[in-house]
Amino acid sequence: MATASGLGTRGNGPREQSIIDPITGERTVVMGDLTFPPRKVWMKTFGCQMNYHDSDRIAAHLQDLNFTKTEELDEADLVLFNTCAVRDLSNNKFYSQLGEIKHAKKKKGGLVVGIGGCVAQTEGKELVKKYKHLDFAFGTDVIDTINDMVFRVYAGDSKFTINSWDRSENFSIETKVSGDSPQAFVNIIKGCNKYCTYCIVPYTRGKERSRLMAEVVEDVTKLVKYQGIQEVTLLGQNVNSYGKENGETLAMLITELDKIDGLEIIRYTTSHPYDVSDDLIAVHGTSKKLSKHLHLPVQSGSATVLERMHREYTPEHYLGLLQKLRAAQPEIVLSTDIIAGFVNETDEEHQATLDLLDKAQFDFIYSYVYSKRNKTRAANFEDLLSDDVRGTRLREIQAHQLKIQDKIHQTMIGKTYRALIDSDGNMGGIKKWKGRTNCNRIVHFIPESVDTDYKWHWVDVVITSATALSCQAELVADLGRIAPSLQNKN
Ligand code: SAH
Ligand code: SF4
Ligand code: F3S
Predict the structure, then answer these.
(1) 35: Cα separation from own chain's centroid
(2) Among the listed residues 320, 351, 318, the one whose alpha carbon sits nearest the alpha carbon of residue 337
(3) Inside any domain, residue 252
(4) pTM for the complete prediction?
(5) Using one digit for the tens of pLDDT, what is the confidence trace for 443-454?
(6) Band (2; pLDDT cuts 50, 70, 90)
(7) CA 364 to ligand 3 center in whole angstroms
(8) How confident is the model at residue 399 (pLDDT cuts 50, 70, 90)?
(9) Do 342 and 466 share a domain, yes or no?
(10) Which residues line ligand 1 (CB under 6 A)?
C-alpha cells in the first residue's frame, strides 16, 4: 500500500532510525542530527470520534520518534492538545487546560507544548503568538507530519504553525491501530461540503475527499487478518457523501467489506440524511455484518428551522427515511443529534422537535444548545433568542426523550443480546463488566467470578432490567475472544 499521504505529506527531510542497545535493550531513535531517547507524551483530546481517531494516529506516529503515551502530566516531555471548535463548551474546556499547562512548563523547563485539531486549524497562529508557553500549532490536515514538527521543536525552532491543506491528488492513508482492541476506526472520507449554517466543521476540516474503495477494502482486510480487528467503524463527517468524486458509494463499500472473512461488525458515522440513498437503505437489509444501529442526525423537527440551518430536507423526508430503514431492517435501532434553540426558534418550531421525537422513537439522542460560531453563516443572522430560553428548551427536549427511551428499553427485558465486552468497573460497590451490543446498546453484567477477565470476549446476555440510560443483564454464555459470526444477532 502507498505510504501515508492525504493527511500531510512528509518532505525529503530526515527520517526516524531506530537503534537498540544490545546490552541494555533500550531503544534510541536517531533523526537527522538529533537523538531521541525514550520520552513520554501526554495528550488531551476534545470533540468527535474523528478527533479521537486522529489522536491515535498521532500517538502511533510518535512511537516512531520514541514517545510512549502517559496519563501522568508530571511524567510528560511533550504535551499535545487535540482541540474541537464545534461549540463554546469544548472550546472553553481547552482554554482552561491550556492555562494549567503554563504551570507544568514552569516546573519542567524542557516541556514541549503543541496544539492540533479544529481550533488550531483556524486560530493556531494567533494562539502560538498569544500563549508564550505554546511551542507549535498544527491543523487537521497535516497530522501525518507530526514527527517532522516535533523534530523541529527539539532542533530549537519553535513558535510555528502549520495548518495548510494537504494537496495530494488522492486521500490515501493506511489505518494505524495500537493496543489489543478488536475495534478499529477507519477513515474513509475527510472534510465536509455541506455548510450547514451553524457549523464550523467545513472551515476546520476542509473540502470532502474520499479514499478509493479498493484501498479501504485492502486496509480493512489487513486489519482483520494481521491485527485481529473484528469490528470497524467507517469514519467521516458525512460518510454518506463517500466516493462521489470516484463514482463509488458507501453502499458499494459496505457490500465489499461484508465479504471479508473474520470481520464481524461494520458501523459507519456520521450520516447526513440528505445523502441517504435507497441503495444504502437496502444494504441495511441485506448486509450480514452491518450494525443494526444507525446514528442519523436530524438537528430539528421544524421545516422552517431546517431551512434556516440549510439542512436540505424536511421533517417528512427524514421520517420517511426512518420508515424505509425500519422496513429494510426491522431490528434497526436509531439515534440522532438535536440542536436546541437555533437562531430565532419560535415556540411552535421547538414544539415540532418534540413532536418529531415522538414520531421517530429514537433509542438515544445527543442534544446541545445552539452555540454561535464565528465564520459560519448563522453567526451573521440577527438572533433574538436568549440563552435562558435555549437552556430551558434543551432540558425539555432531554426530559421528553428520556421518557421515550425508557419505554423503548423496557421492551428489551427478557431478550438475549450478544455483546463485545470492553471494560469493567465498580457500580455501587459491585464489580460489573460492560459491553456493547451489535445495535449499540450498553449492557452491564455481574461476572460469575470476580477473577474472570472478560475483556474483548463476546458474550450472550439476557437483559434483566433497563432504564432510559442503562441496561443490566445476566450472563448466558461466554464465547471467549474468538468472534462467532454475529449474523442475526442484535
Ligand atoms: N458531521 C456530523 C457531526 C457534526 S458535529 C453531522 O453532520 O451530523 C456534531 C453535532 O454537533 C452536530 O450534529 C450538531 O448537532 C452539533 N453542532 C454542530 N454545530 C453546532 C453549533 N454551532 N451549536 C450547537 N451544536 C452544534
Ligand atoms: Fe457540520 Fe453539516 Fe457538515 Fe455535519 S454535515 S459536519 S453538521 S456542516
Ligand atoms: Fe469538533 Fe472538529 Fe470534530 S470541530 S466535532 S473536533 S470535526
Answers:
(1) 34
(2) 318
(3) yes
(4) 0.94
(5) 999 998 888 999
(6) very low
(7) 21
(8) very high
(9) no
(10) 86-87, 198-199, 201, 237-238, 270, 272, 297, 299, 337, 339, 368, 370-371, 373
